[in-house]
Amino acid sequence: MDRAPFGHIMALMQRHIALAALVGMAALIFAPELRDAGAFVLSKSLDANAIKVVQNSLYGLGCF
Fold first, then answer.
1. Which segment, 13-17, 24-28, 58-62, is predicted with the most confidence on average?
2. 21 or 42: which leads in pLDDT
């Protein structure tokens, strides 16, 4: 069985964390009725590394 390099796996995990955090942020911003769900997604998906990934993603999207 061929295994993916560890760096590749970490990059995929960071992408998934960033996507979950972006979905949570979108719920907080664009759908006030989903505010509790958005806060829940953010609280479950963010840690110190993920915060940096989300900041970089938002910067890349032109949000800053």
1. 13-17
2. 21
Q: Tokens standing for 12? A: 């995929």
Cβ density class 44-56: b for 16+ within 10 Å, e for less: ebbeeebeebbee
Q: Are residues 35 and 27 in contact, defined by beta-carbon separation less than 8 angstroms?
A: yes
Residues 6+ apart with CB under 8 A from 44: 20
In angstroms, the Cα distances linking 6 to 3, 9, 16, 49, 59 are 9, 5, 15, 16, 26
Question: 16 pLDDT exceeds 70?
Answer: yes
